[in-house]
Amino acid sequence: MAHFLRKAVAVAAATACIGLGTAVMGSANATAATTPANPFPTHVTYKTGVLPSASAATRDAAVEKQYNAWKSTYLVHGCASDEYYVSTKGDGDAPNNGPVSEGQGYGMNIVPLMAGYDADAKTEFDGLWQLVKDHEDQYGLMQWQLDGKTCAYADSGTPDAATDGDLDIGYGLILADKQWGGYSADAKAWLGRIYAHDVASDGHLKCEDDGPTTDTRPSDMMLDHLRAFAAYDTTHDWNKVVTRTEAIVNEFTSAYSSAKGLLSDFVVNANTTSPKPAPADYQESQPDNIVGYNSIRVPWHMGTDALLNGATTAATAYNDAKKWSACAKSVSGGDPKKVYPHLNLNCTVYSTSDQAEEAGDSVGPAAMAAGDQAWTDAIWNQLATNPFGDGYFGETIKTLVYVVMAGDYWTPAAASAPANDFSVSVSPASGTAAPGGTLTASVGTAVTSGSAQSVALTATGAPSGVTVSFSPASVTAGSGATMTVTAGSGTAAGSYPISVTGTAASGSHTAGYTLTVGTGGGGGCTPAQLLGNPGFESGTAIAPWTQTSTLGFAPINNDTADEPAHGGSWDAWTNGNGTADTDTVAQTVSIPAGCAATLSYWLHIDTTENTTTATPDTYKVQVLNSAGTVLSTVATYSNLNHDTGYSQHSADLSAYAGQTVTLRFTGTETDANGGTTSFVLDDTALRTS
């Protein structure tokens, strides 16, 4: 196989590929699940090292942004109607921006990792896999280079396969099987072919399936992949491949780069205990005896193995990652842009004639494994840029490095997907009622790992005469319910702890709620509803409400076609403009002394924000004094609380009896992620008892 050279021989994009596609095709695995077991983001606790200083939500959002850009540019629907491929656009690695097996493998890793965020991930993965199956060489592995228009083999001689692509395709099949199921037979058959044709008899990885058994390529040393193969495919001795790969790393670096841990683009004598750098012109026109566009991927792979498997299991990768990270930081002065693609094995710059984002980006996982926070943060910050205008190679590697550095790179080597689990919360966590009075609170549930499951809600600890009910009584984790607490007329005064329990197949979780029963109206309080115009049905005469909008809109409106009211035809619709703004509605009210007071309201939240963690849009319910100082924020909601209809919420305001306060509902939209959220308020009440 004629290997290709990155960058140095890259040419301008040739004639355009067939159009990027979004058409849905039939699945090749009809029995597989469509709901991913590990939806993005699946936050992973790595076994060593540090994460970037940015928050998890910020990291996830950055990955999503990069994925969107990568998918729209490089994921091509073609050549057949049931095929997808990863285009080499911008790098000239195949005619007409066609695919190479390396890129196809990258895509088959990226897409399953983004399932859950990308609703079309399974369709796209099946299309990527279909193209592989349609273009196998004599050994049943993917032909390494294809034309972008015809998908015909684009190199001379008998079609052959490249080991890096083969390994990533195999890893992608395991990811897909763990994510959706249904790929086990394909994955094990593929791994069997790799073992038969890409692995030499001593266990080292060849460069290609029809190549010599005496050489290897360090960029193929994906130790985390090999460990996953060993856990998944016990028919073949993948542990022998792990052991021999680690031995070559140690034998080579001790002889040629003991202080820096660098490996050359190609290595010969790999079938002996004395591997050495290949001749300078061994396979490509760049020097093959130093670090180049192949082995710049080593710190990414070594760092990832160390993060996933720890400093003991992955000792070779951990030690090499630390050295490689230190070299890159030193030679660049801590500037990722100055990690040049070509380095001598003593960690001096071979040439500054070319630069590439992937040279610095690939060091990110190694810097994390090394525990170097400042260096990790510098590389993380570079990922948001493309300083040299890189194409397919740099942007695709960046996408995978982004997932690792964000803390979302889960390993399919685990015996099973994360166990299903959930949490339960109650808001507000307390309430006061007179005998005969009623309170409501919101019960929230959330998926904490695995997949959503049915959760049955119950309550214990209520005193005699107090009833607690839930609507609905059973929810899917991630949804909420309204809890209604009714104190019987004969309930004795006092405080009572109530346990709210959610029970699912995975077990039970409990949240606390404190009910205080007072003397109520018997002490001189006249039950009343204190808010004026509580359902906004006075129309444009909004008093006693006031309203503001930084965009000049009137939140109180009767646009029931777009946002129906809960009752009547008027509501208070804040935000939802697709532009950063802050909207408020407020009312000043006096709460009589000696009264228990409960605020209730109906709220509908809908959103086009495509995130499960970030909260760019928020809604606050607050109590202010006459000077405008916030006394309490009684509830906060966000785009993550979206639902298909209205939900009733309540808050105990008895603490403000005898005071004049302002109730303010504030919606804030940042427009940070490109989506928009509407918070619609209706049918408010402030009842005393």
Automatic annotation (TrEMBL):
Q: Which UniProt keywords apply?
A: Glycosidase, Hydrolase, Signal
* Protein name from the UniProt record: Glycoside hydrolase
By sequence similarity, the record places it as follows:
Belongs to the glycosyl hydrolase 8 (cellulase D) family.
Where does the signal sequence lie? Answer: 1-32
Check the record and name the Pfam families matching this protein: Glyco_hydro_8
Keyword GTP-binding attached? no
According to its UniProt entry, this protein's organism is Actinacidiphila acidipaludis
Q: Which GO terms describe its molecular function?
A: hydrolase activity
